């Protein structure tokens, strides 16, 4: 223990993951990774949603129709669907530092090119390729799960993801302000000013990529390359990592439910400014402020969901995490339905603010569960779940907000119904070692049985399973206070064939 305390500024567990979360610390490697992750994800969010607050200007310049705007909004979130799964795989194989910095740099040119587009198709393309950067969410969550122990991983995931998502609200304020300064103070025409404004998010995104690459570290003990070369970490095979992810049904359920919390958040980011501008006839600046208030709730709502997940887990374990996720997401669906029904400006703003808290808290609660689905395939599971958020956003916008089949308020109402229906899938998540919403754990099954089942006997004989074994020990607290009497295997059991889970 003395060695660990000398090596790390924060107390750590047997995997050298931090067991405490100190928000105002920048200690290497744990807290530095936290700050690098949320700032870079924030930058990508600002870039991806830089266009919506300026749509009234851009649509006049490029002669965009309602369908063009809807298609571009869909393109912005569809780009990250497969990118998120790919990012999860890249994190598993190459580490979050290299995967994240590479993607951010590869997508930055699309943000710069936004300044020179001159057609609806060009607008759609730059939004599509910029949207790929949202896959950095996966590396953010993977990184936090690699740096923080199970007792605080929900808090770390919630804060990093929430403060990154904050960019979706911040850009509603940033871009109109930058545009106004360029147009009014510098004297550029309005059709030139919006183009120059895009250089601000593009530069921010570029700088964040270099910061991650040069200042970040993959794991508490070092970067993947050094750990694999020294033999401290097993270089896993893609086929095995991918197989254990896609055959774990819990990952698919979380991908579905995340599609109707984070997916809904992405949808709202795309439509809300224009919704208030068109329906309630407020000016562009006011619409931007109202829209920003939805995204800015991420300052505390998504982090609050992650913290709540950790809090209930201390007493009720994994079953507490699942129950809280289900209740919060169902309430979010009800509030979304109500938002579409209210016809007054004041009432709509009030319901939207409360709705934002619940839908974003559900995102934090989801990633309070994700790190426990698989130890070997954590990246792919994170990617599947994150990708599910984008799939949900795409489907929702295609069905309810593309063209003129539904009015925007009708689309919002139906989106609320979808949230509640999809949330029912949480009822089927069951961990044999901890239980589910209505059933307790399977008798005699331990954490080692569950996590070591991802490794073959041959792999265990070579010691590849050791990191999973340590994670099993550290995740035993997910039994909750009432589960402390559950069986604990002796070291000789670690090499035995795991129970069927």
TrEMBL record:
Gene Ontology biological process terms, A to Z: nitrate assimilation
Membrane topology field: Multi-pass membrane protein
GO MF annotation, one: nitrite transmembrane transporter activity
PROSITE patterns attached to this UniProt entry: MFS
Location in the cell: Cell membrane; Endomembrane system
Matches recorded under InterPro entries: MFS, MFS_dom, MFS_trans_sf, NO3_transporter, NO3_transporter_NarK/NarU-like
Keyword Transmembrane carried by entry: yes
Annotated Gene Ontology cellular component terms: endomembrane system; plasma membrane
Family named by the database record: Belongs to the major facilitator superfamily. Phosphate:H(+) symporter (TC 2.A.1.9) family.
Annotated stretches, region: Disordered: 469-501
Name under which the protein is recorded: Nitrate/nitrite transporter
TM stretches of this protein: 38-57, 98-117, 124-143, 163-182, 194-215, 249-268, 280-300, 320-339, 351-373, 379-400, 412-431
Keywords: Cell membrane, Membrane, Nitrate assimilation, Transmembrane, Transmembrane helix, Transport
Start and end residues of each Major facilitator superfamily (MFS) profile domain: 33-434
Organism of provenance: Artemisia annua
A Pfam family recorded for this sequence: MFS_1
